[in-house]
Amino acid sequence: MNITDIICEKRTVLLKRPFKTAVRTVETIDVMDVRVITEDGTEGYGSATATLQVTGDSLEGMKAAVEGPIKEALLYEDMNKRNELLLKLENCCIHNSNAKAAVDIALHDAFGKQYNLPVYRLLGGEKDVLETDMTVSINAPAMMQEEAVARVAEGFNVLKLKVGHEEEEDFQRVLKVKEAVGNEVGLRLDANQGWNGKQAVHFIKRLEKAGINVEFIEQPVSAHDLKALKYVRDNVHLPIMADESAFSPREVLRLVEMDCVDYVNIKLMKAGGLRRAGQIADICESAGIPCMIGSMMESTVSGTAAAHLAMAHPNIKLYDLDAPLWMKDEGLKGGMSYEGREVAVGDSPGLGFY
Q: Which residues is 8 bridged to in the sheet?
């Protein structure tokens, strides 16, 4: 069964409220949906979001990559040669991880439909219910406190706080939220590369001295400054997670070699899809480093793919899958569903969209 066409379409999705980090503010997302069509009429669905500030991928660039080298490499290829297909996708052009992720997701959806299996079973997993955290955007301390209380009232018992600005205000952000939600709600901090090594160590030691326990500090320093990342990990007690420093399997191997981190945040848009995301989880498992599955501010389609991978890989132990909850109605049917903090997927073949 061969691939007969690959089609991409653009859409814009509105967010319910602005999403703010140390790097950017997002009010809408530009999504590229991809359909991989086979000769028997099967259609696999995938999507990617333009994330110029993180991966360097624009909507126009993603479309050019899919309609150019990716389509050229995959058109009329045999769907039964799964690993060969995915390797051709990976090697057809450099970079363009978002575009590759969209097509990789669409291929996995089509593979699942071909074998009448949900993607998590295709990848060797069992159906499970995951518990996601909820992100609290960076804002004035009082506003973050108010939002944290609202999210806990919705049923979330782990919050990820965006920090990475001036130290005193960051400290007040964490302190205000901690005072409001107490010790029953877990806290995770994400600096989005907002500090240098010395700033990060000073801030984290201040948290430790104040007895404010958090599950981890995510990407405290610049993605490319691995010496600073190691300096932070070597000089604090709280666990350190890599995000922007961990795009590809090769980058993750370097993190392992340098003993830089306690956790790695896997995102399909960074990795280029499910195949390479799974490789990252494998590498980390071999090194004894647990992983979190996360996402950019993305569509429910790619969010669903991330949830399927999380159900399939035993080394993905933490879940940051709240992005679809930030979207206004996407008009999609099927895929992942939420009940408070619980994330579930269906038993339908592929990703379960219809």
A: 34
